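Q: what does this look like with heme C bound?
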Amino acid sequence: MQRTVRFSLWLAVPLALFVPAISALAQSGTAAKPAVPAKNPLALTFKKPDPAKGKALSQSCQGCHGPNLASTNKAIPGLAGQNPSYTRLQLAAFRAKLRPSQVMWQQAANLSDQDIADIAAYAGGLKPGSAWKVGDEKVRAKGEALFHKGDSGRNIIACAICHGDNGRGNDYLGVASITNLSPEYGLAILKEFKGAPGFGVPHPDAMRIMLRPMTDADLKAVAAYISSMQK
Ligand code: HEC
Ligand code: HEC
């Protein structure tokens, strides 16, 4: 039940992306009014981000996301070292209640576009937390191989193609840095991407499509590996 709710909310993300286009189209039919596109809740307007302001704003986040935003709580992702474009998109999606999480809806509710950009810039400049302990070395090694080489026999492409060999992703392309996620959070988010319906937009469809040929054991293995990547 819980999962159904989460998926239908995720589905709203790509829909929201299309709202401005649809409303502009609808309005262009009425000659009296010029077309004024509705604001896309995921498109933020901000000036040059100020990491010092971001630092002040993120004091309240540290209770959950950890000192210096490097989480040591396995249920909560670290924000330290995350690519700002990814952090901005997630905070905008929480604020618009498009990404599920009651807790984060509250946290993001009163942040302005500029606050979000300042926090993302501050977090992005911090050093990610240290690696998590991985219990089973064999599982981690299987994940390492899948991450860097994929498995062409099973149509699995290497995660490194998008996330990079070091797992730090790409800020310009909006690809998340994935080092330092706990094995538990990593596995949960991978299962969520895999089980989600089609979105019709590159984000987060890239993840959904790429995980399709992977088994639960594969996901557990890559989640274990990425949690150990940060040196
Ligand atoms: C009460 C605990 C709590 C507080 C306080 C909190 N968060 Fe979170 N945050 C979470 C949890 C739990 C998640 C995981 C949500 C999920 O996907 O279920 C999360 C997820 C996130 C994510 C997504 C990260 C990713 O890797 O996808 C961002 C960004 C984030 N929080 C930013 C913030 C910021 C900025 C603040 C302070 C303004 C904050 N959080 C305060 C609990 C908290
Ligand atoms: C085709 C490009 C692509 C490939 C290949 C890919 N990813 Fe991703 N990944 C992305 C993008 C883009 C995002 C950000 C998703 C979004 O915007 O919602 C992402 C997000 C993630 C996240 C969420 C990060 C967070 O903080 O919650 C994890 C975990 C992840 N990827 C792991 C993997 C693993 C493991 C593999 C290999 C099995 C993989 N990815 C392969 C593009 C890719």
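Residues 58, 60-61, 63-65, 75-77, 79, 87, 90-91, 101, 103-104, 107, 119 surround heme C (ligand 1) (CB under 6 Å). DSSP finds eleven helices and no strands in the chain.
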